Each structure stands twice: as C-alpha cells, then as structure tokens.
Predict the structure.
Amino acid sequence: MRGVAYKDRERGRAYGRAWMRRNLDKAREAMRRWRERNPELRRARNREYRRAAYRRDPEKFKARRATYLAKHPEVKRAADQAYRARRIAAVGSFTGAEWHALLDRSGNVCAYCGRAGPLEADHRMPLARGGTNYIDNIVPSCRSCNGAKHKMTEEEFRARLAGERDAMTAPTVE
C-alpha cells in the first residue's frame, strides 16, 4: 500500500503534513525528484499560483514585485530588454544565467569604456538594424556608452571612440 487512504480529505492532508515533519529528508528528496521529472507541470503550477495570488490581492502583488525589482535592478533591465526585443519581433533571447556568465567574462566592466558599475545589455548589431537578441550579439555596456552608441554597430561605435581619443591626444597647432 502506497499511502494511507482517508475518506476525509483534510484528515489525509493532516497525516501527510505530519509525515513530512517526521521524515523531512525523505520528503525533500521526493519533492526534488518530482520537480526533476515534471518541469513543465511545475512551471504551470507556479504560473497558476502567481495568477491566483495576483487575483487575490493585486496591490500587494504589485508592491512585492516593485520591492523585488528595486533590490534587483539587473532583473528589471533584463525584463525591459526582453520586452523591447519582443515588441519589435527580434529573434532570439538570452537567460539571466547567460547574462551573468557574460558579465563574469567581461570582469563586470563596460566593454567600451572599461568603467565598472551598473551595466546594460547592448546589442553589437542593434535590433533596429536587424540584430538578434541572442547572447552572442550582446556586450555589457554602461548607461552612457549604450546611450551614445544608439543605433551604431559595435564597429562603428568603437571607430568613433577611437577617433575621439585620437582627437583628444593630438597636439594642438596654433
């Protein structure tokens, strides 16, 4: 017999909760195995749980989300970037894990000026010019470089930066 069958559903649930408290390691392992075997069902249940929480108290849900995004600005930037890419129907996407790996490889500095600080995903080939939203088309960039680059390709922007650097170091002729 796999479990104890109860006609009273609440009594069965109470038994299950008590068993889980007594056998915490077994219960955790069983839950881990279930999550591993049922990733789609787990995602669907999580989505439904979030929807139900939103329907119960939308203001509380929005406040919790706002607090989370305030503490994690990189998540907000990534979500905004993904929304923008979807809006213009750009192909591809990248995950948070891929973005963090890219930041680690870059040393958490801007790919153009080398400054540390809050970084944004910048497209080597801009989405507006037909670029993709895959991680291989992304470089970490500070806000000022990303804004200055605008719709230039990476090569065009680097050439502009090099020209500005040369102009600043060139001796002035009077």
